[in-house]
Structures are given as C-alpha cells and as structure tokens.
Amino acid sequence: MKISTHCKLSRETRWLLVMILLALVLVGCRADDDISSSETETETVITLPPGTGTDGSLAANQLVNGGADNQIEEINRVPLEDADQLLVDLDNLPSVLLLQARLMGQPDIWALVSDPVAGQRLFVSPFTQIGYRIAQRDGFDTLNATRVSTINNSVRDAFAPGVDSLLINIRNPEVPIPDNSLGNNQTDLLTLYSLVLNSMTVFPGEGSSEEPGFVEPSDAERAAVALNDLSRDGGSGVIDGRGANGDAVSGLPYNPLRFVPRYMTSLQDASFRLANSDLLAALEGVETARFINRDLRCDSGFVAEYFSANEGELVLEATRVEGYEDFFSAGEEYGFLIDENGDLAFLPDNDEAVLLGAGELFTCSSGLNSQVSLVRYIADISGDGELEELVIVGTGDNPLAGTGSGGGIYLASESSGRLAVLGNVNPFGGGIPTPEAPPEDTTPDPVAASCGVDGLFSFSLNGEGTTATADSSLTGAVSNPGFATDGDLTTAAALRLFVGGAFSYAEVTVSNDVPPMTADDAGQVALVVSVPESLLQLGLFESVRVTTFRDGETLTEDNQLSFLQLDLLNQLGFDGQRVITIPAGNEPFDEVSVRLRGGLLNLNAQIQVFDICYGP
Question: Quick one: average pLDDT of 468-487?
Fold first, then answer.
C-alpha cells in the first residue's frame, strides 16, 4: 500500500473544504479506480490525509468475553506505513472488528467493522467514530455483526443518506476536485458528505489564511479535537451538545439544535459547486437528522429502577418559548406527571393532555457517574408530522425533578425551528448559543442580529404568521424554502437552475399575515445571499427578480439589484455571501418573492437566500 502524505486541493475549492487536508483522519485518499494493479486483493486500503505524516499505527481489536464490561483485546498492530498488512496476517478474523487509528498529537479514531475480510477498503472517519461511541454508550456486550451494521447504517442515514456504506473509500484528495465534477456514485457522494461534515467543526471567522474558512496546518490539532468533540456529541445517539451520560460537550462550534439546517445549507453550498447535474438531482429531497440511534439502555430494567425512584409531579416555569406559543406561555407554570412505568403526561395551554409512553424513550442516562441525568422522549408531540424531543435534564440528588442549577425540561423539533424551555436547563449542552432567555423588550432589533447591517430589519422575525413557499420549472428546483424565514444566517433556501433558458426558473416566496413595517421603513428590500462570482460575470442581476406584494397585489417588481456591502459575512464560511438591496418604493408589503430565471445563465446556476430584510 502507498501512503499519501501530500494531497493538494485547488484554490477554487478551498473556500468550502475547510479542513479536508487536516481533519479527515485516515481518509481513503484514492477512489476505487485509483488503486494500482500492483496491489493484491489481500491488501487493506487505508491511506492518510496530508499533514499527518507517517507517525502512528493501526490496530485491529476484538471483543473479550462477548464485550462484557466493554473489554476488548488487540490482535494486531502495525505502523501506518504497513497498514496494508493489518488484516492479511490474521487468521479467523472476528465477526466484529474494532479498528483503531492512533496518530501522533491527535485523538484516536475508531471504526466498527462487521464480518471483516482481508483486502477490505476501509474509510476511518468522524462518521465511523460516531458509530463507535454509540456502541460504547450501549455497551460492547450488545455488539454482534448485525448490531454493528445497524449502528453504522443509522449514522449513515443521519449524515450521509443515499450512501450504501460509511466504510467505502472516498475521492482522492491528492487530485483537485474541479467544479461540477462529483458524479452520482457512491465514492463521490460520500466524498461530498465528508467534506461538508468537516466544515461543521470550524468556528466562524477562525480561518487563518487569506481565504475565508480555510484552516492552516498549524490548526490541525485544534481541528482534530473539534471533530472528536463532534463524535462525542453524536455518540449519545442525538446531536444535542451532550455526551452519552448527559454531560455537556464543551466548546462545540455549532448550535446543536440547529445542526440539521446548518448541515443542509452547507450541503447545498458544496453540492452546487462540486457536483454535476446528476448528483444535484439525486440530492433533491435528501434529509439529514439529529436523532441518530435509540439508546439500548432505555430498557425495562432502567424504567423499573429509575422511574419508580423518581415518579411524581414536576411543576416548572416556562422560561423560553419560541414556536410553541400554542402550547406554552413564557412566565407560566406547567405540571408534568411522571409515573413508575416511564410514562409522562403534561397539560399545555391547549388543554389537551399530551401523553408520552415508555416506548418513546430514545436516550437514557441515570446520572450514576455524574451529577447530570438525561431522559429523552421522541415523538410527533405537536401532531404536525415532525419528530420532536422532550428532554428531562436532572441535577443534584433528585435527578428527575429538575431541581438545582441546570435542571429542567425542554421541547424541541428535530430541525429545531421551535424551542420551549421550562426551568433553567441549557437546551444547547456545550454548543452555541448560550441559553439566555430573549430580552423582554419586543422592539424589533436591527438586523445586526439578522442581516448584519444596522437600520435593516428581518422580514420574518418581525412579522406574524410567516410562511415560505417554493415554485420552479421542471428544469429548476428550490431546496429548504423555510430557511429563508428562520432569521438564521447559517441556513439558506437554495434556488437552482439545472438548465438555462427563457423558460427555466426557481422561486421562493415569503409571506406575513400583515406588513411588519411602516411606510417609512419600506424604502428597500435587502437580501442576504450567497452568489458565486461566476454568476456575477454571467449577468446574474439580469436573471434575479424581486417582487413585493400587499394583499396579493403587486407593489414593486424590480431586478435593479445593487450591493450594499460586498463579502460582508464571509466569516460564516459560505462563498460570496453578501447583502444586496432593491428599492421598495416606501410601500409596506406583506409578501416578497425572489425568482432566479434562466436567460443568460448556464447549467447549474444557483443562489442561496439566507434572509429577507427591509429598511428605510
């Protein structure tokens, strides 16, 4: 096996591949067609990213006594330069293999392999590390080849839907990835997901080179630690900012409750730049998830011991309500009844009792080894078709009662467009933002918190009854239209054209019940968008039309876009993110549509709309 230690990416793709050269530990640096004919069928293909050198080793481990007490034993270890021999020299390979990559100055990276064979090409990555930590959570005594496949597949379905296996090799980072070159195949699809996942670990604005978001080799150790923290978070079975036993994973560079929309927006950004039209079409409708794998510790024994010791009524004040106003009112107290069978009931503002049974328990931590306990139910609690979590975080001597600092209950949707906090629990664990309640002053904040420019205001955050709809021709598409209304500058609706031409279009429309502004504040519409430089050169502004409406009647229809400030928010890591403005004629409006039309544009044109704002 040849170890690659000098992979190089083109400048065009470095804006996105934030740490690909540094943090994809032991990625398969070659796609299947890159394996030379001199390699035999018994060689195990595991290669290294640049910057890691050859200092380290690989180890194959097997379970001891069926994994009781999480015992494993090493059955072979080889230096990295001899990685191709790791499985060749072993007879009677175990049905469950625990593969360990030990690198100098970086956390170990693990992978679970079911029914391994010599010559297998293995991708050891943050994906496989999450699966390993989930196995640790449940206990290795639950592992067999079937359970290993189940765990790996649950991680794949959450982070890399459409990929057959997380263990296949990815695209060779030694070879630059040209724009629009990743195709609709397993290697390229997993390559794309890998690049995007790694970008999630970078703190905004921490890139140390002249290219936004790119992390210099001197930051490799920090990047590896950040990826390890991400695996600790996901290893609980849920992206929630906490580890398997409920303790916060400190320093996460993302909001755990907003992980799905952030990941999806990064995927949009990456796929448009790197994927060809076939892969773009295959990615339409793809959904990722925060809820990964059910905790096997949530069994009848846990219920019998834990809930019987902590049953009773729990009364908590709602301290933060965002999107659950039909259920809760901030400042009001609500009762939760917990019985010895693990069932929970509560009566929100709608006067309809909500019942959650023990069968809906998803993760369970008793707090025996820490001062924190965490019990999570997952169900469609509000009846709108989206899964939600109700999480009880306990501290102190009475862990289920939510007493003490940091105890309480929170309710959140999987995409976390909604959140309700009762008590003083931190719903973000060790991630950002901090859990302070919003200020009591309801005066619309300048969009310094939304659009990035004083004197502008968020159309959705300051409106009521906000909705987003999408429309497109057969040669266009709109992904995640609701992300244009969530007031979050890390999420965006994507408008794509697969084929140019006069009849090709993609459109997102955002509506409020009533205009959120006065005439004095309706002088302009402002859009926070991500616009590739190539589209600016192809006449983008002749191809984008912004229209305002009130009560269904057109007020202004204009494509005279102008820059308010270039590259205003590049620290978020999106290419070409900027604010553009359009005259609104001082006519208060309750609806805005943004349409991308074919015209001069070529194949695979896209803009991303992060937020829609207004101002004088």
Answer: 88
